[in-house]
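quick q for whoever's on today - can somebody do inverse folding on this one?? i tried earlier but teh output was garbage lol. tokens:
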């Protein structure tokens, strides 16, 4: 196969993947919507029995699998209605596969498998998982949401911190290097919906505000109706229109310290294991 044929083959595979991705996420949104309507008393699809049946069945079946694996000496790191994160020794891999297959045949469900070399979590819905130098991110640290698997689900929230931590956990690149090298202001911004609208220094901003953290700002954004501070907006600089040039007052140290906070939150650092990447 020559280079042109190979490039065409790769392009075709990417197209097939994008189609499957769209179909998968579309069906997921549809199914989640249906199951959500089962709990909505104002919906024609309202069905409390189906809600209880679905939730309890899923929880009990996952609990059964967790019990099977725990009895075989494996450790359950986290669990929810969707699946388990299991820590096991390399010599127990065949044993793990056996019990998963046994569970699948018993329940009629099929599990998807993902192996991680590192897994750091704040909770079941917020974690960094490393696989072959690739990092899966979920929850407030993620750029995409869990419903559609795209950016449409989440407002940007200091994505540079997630970028830096992913590179640090996967290839060991220092946090400060990633943050200082980045010149894309969109990776530093926070976007927040503000009910009733927001203002900064008596200037109305709107109901959706965008800011970055500045080393020359000592003010915060306020709710128009109450005058209360919008959460986490201390020392911010509103940036409702993206600038042509990268701001010269961006507080790089703030973002570096935020990365440290996240590393503590996900259990990478503890009081016994202090910060060492500066």
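ok took a stab at it. sequence:
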């Amino acid at each position: 196969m020559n280079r042109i044929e190979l490039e065409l083959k790769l392009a075709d595979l990417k197209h097939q993947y994008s189609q499957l991705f769209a179909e998968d996420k579309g069906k997921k949104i549809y199914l989640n919507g249906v199951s959500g309507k089962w709990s909505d008393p104002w919906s024609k699809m309202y069905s409390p029995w189906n809600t209880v049946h679905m939730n309890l069945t899923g929880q009990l079946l996952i609990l059964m699998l967790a019990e099977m694996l725990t009895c075989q000496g494996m450790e359950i790191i986290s669990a929810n209605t969707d699946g388990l994160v299991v820590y096991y020794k390399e010599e127990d891999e065949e044993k793990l596969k056996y019990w998963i297959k046994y569970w699948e045949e018993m329940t009629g469900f099929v599990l998807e498998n993902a192996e991680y070399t590192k897994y750091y979590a704040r909770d079941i819905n917020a974690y960094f998982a490393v696989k072959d130098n690739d990092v899966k991110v979920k929850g407030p640290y993620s750029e995409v949401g869990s419903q559609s698997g795209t950016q449409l689900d989440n407002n940007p929230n200091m994505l540079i911190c997630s970028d830096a931590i992913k590179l640090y956990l996967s290839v060991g690149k220092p946090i400060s290097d990633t943050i200082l090298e980045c010149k894309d202001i969109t990776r530093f911004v926070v976007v927040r919906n503000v009910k009733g609208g927001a203002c900064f220094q008596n200037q109305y901003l709107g109901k959706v505000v965008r800011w970055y953290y500045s080393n020359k700002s000592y003010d915060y954004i306020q709710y128009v109706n109450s005058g209360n501070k919008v959460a986490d907006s201390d020392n911010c600089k509103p940036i409702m229109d993206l600038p042509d040039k990268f701001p010269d007052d961006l507080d790089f140290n703030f973002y570096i310290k935020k990365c440290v906070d996240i590393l503590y939150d996900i259990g990478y650092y503890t009081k016994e294991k202090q910060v060492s990447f500066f």
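fwiw Residues 3-37 form the longest helix (35 residues). also The chain has a mean pLDDT of 85. so keep that in mind when u check it
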